[in-house]
Design a protein that fits this description.
Layout (H helix, E strand, L loop, with lengths): L11 H16 L5 E5 L9 E11 L2 E12 L11 E11 L1 H5 L3 H15 L4 E13 L11 E12 L9 H15 L14
Antiparallel strand pairs: 1-2, 2-3, 3-4, 4-6, 5-6
Helix pairs in contact: 1-4, 3-4
Length: 195
């Protein structure tokens, strides 16, 4: 898949960074993970690109998310750079996990550890982790509680010492976060069979 840039013209250094994103999309293969391009927001920065993802297990979607790259050659207040990543992840979790007050800190650590593990150089990271526990009543058929975690984050992607920007590292870190929230094991780790 070739990730399209909105608008199509952009500085050459950012076009090269976008090529790393396109290559990373093609290499982001994990069971149940599906990536696809979506329309990018046009009012947040002069140049942008966006990817959405879903994670399925046993035929059911258990997590979804969006990964948006914003580029402004002049930078913007608070970015501390010219390329900002805005990411969203939403996943169903077990009720016990959703009720655990530590889930917010754990969810944020999944993001920061994924960025570090993938070597995704960044600064000015910020965001929120929201836990939702819902109970159904009345005519709704399913009496069980449902729990969900949402992680909304943004960070500025930094270039390497040679001034190249590898957006693929950031995409793979986001995919790791998405899969972690869906309860999948980290890359290279096999899940234990359930009884």
């Amino acid at each position: 898949m070739t990730v399209q840039l909105e608008p199509p013209s952009a500085p050459e250094t950012f076009r090269a960074a976008l090529a790393t994103l396109t290559a990373a999309v093609d290499k982001a293969t994990r069971p149940g993970l599906v990536l696809h391009e979506v329309p990018a927001p046009r009012k947040l920065a002069p140049y942008s690109a966006a990817i959405a993802a879903e994670v399925s297990r046993g035929g059911d979607e258990v997590a979804s998310g969006r990964f948006v790259v914003l580029h402004d050659p002049a930078g913007q207040d608070g970015w501390r750079g010219d390329t900002r990543i805005v990411a969203f992840v939403s996943a169903d979790v077990e009720s016990e996990m959703g009720a655990d007050p530590a889930l917010a800190q754990v969810g944020w650590s999944w993001l920061t550890e994924s960025l570090t593990d993938r070597g995704a150089l960044h600064t000015a990271a910020g965001g929120t982790v929201t836990r939702t526990l819902s109970s159904r009543f009345g005519s709704l058929e399913e009496p069980d509680e449902t729990s969900e975690v949402e992680i909304r984050a943004s960070w500025t992607a930094l270039p390497a010492e040679d001034q190249t920007l590898d957006l693929g590292q950031h995409l793979h870190a986001w995919c790791d976060l998405l899969c972690a929230t869906a309860g999948m094991p980290p890359p290279g780790v096999a899940a234990l069979p359930t009884r």
